[in-house]
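Hi R.,

Here's the chain you asked about this morning:
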Amino acid sequence: MQIYAGSTHPDLAQKLSKLSGFPVGKIEISQFPNHEIRIHILEDKIDREAIVIQSIVTHPNKAIMEFSLIMDALRRSGAREITAVIPWLGYCIQDKVFRKGEPLSARVVADLISASHPDKIITFDLHNETIQGFFNHQIYHLSAVPLLLEEIKKHSMPDIIVAPDVGALKESTKIAHSLDLPIAVLNKKRDLKTGKVEIIGIDRQIEGQHALIMDDFISTGSTLIQTVKYLKDHGVKHISVGVTHHLFVENTHQKLLQSGINDLYISNSVTLPKNLETANDFHLHQIDISPEINKYL
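And here is the predicted structure, written out as tokens:
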């Protein structure tokens, strides 16, 4: 078995290779002058089984095309069984049609991936687990949450779980039960004219406590930063945040540095940018998901 990585996640390919013992295959990814992607598998011999790793992130449209071309190149080169490892499934946030004339984007992307005929798909913490039903292939929907919680417990056990809104209550309640902790829920209202969301209260006393917020992803970080500010303003002494997917868009990390978060726990479902700045009171903890992937190869 060989491992092939698209441009979005060579680091995870190396970690999985070290753990599994499967070599990382040589692949050349370039562009023609007209910006069309060019793929060239450089291995003389292609194993019957292959793994393709590609998070649909950073430039998601390019990442999807890269993935599709790599899959086709491997099939034409002799691979017969291909496992697609897609830690972050881009477009999974667009899992509903809100207005007439909109596409069901998550389904479209699922169809594009399925058209590449992977034999099985491994992904993590989809925004909505029903997205699994969009695929026609065997899919392993894994979660990094247990790994994040284990890491959190090693450092400092929180006093309370905070659900940032009612929509997060179900998953936050599961986590609270697993840690035997109470849960607090923020109440919000949305201005129907401007779309602005305002926090109007919380259902439990939080002053002086260590709060943990868990979510599946961070994009711009605006909702999270608003939540952290509210908690700090109401006397929370320490804030830990755990998320599987940190998308690193719009200088999000720099905003989080100044937000009041004390500990941020993330997985390596997305490549960590080089030379991230840190502050004395801000600690970034990254958890490796390659051991979980290795269980399903």
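One quick note: The CA atoms of residues 68 and 113 lie 7 Å apart.

Cheers,
M.
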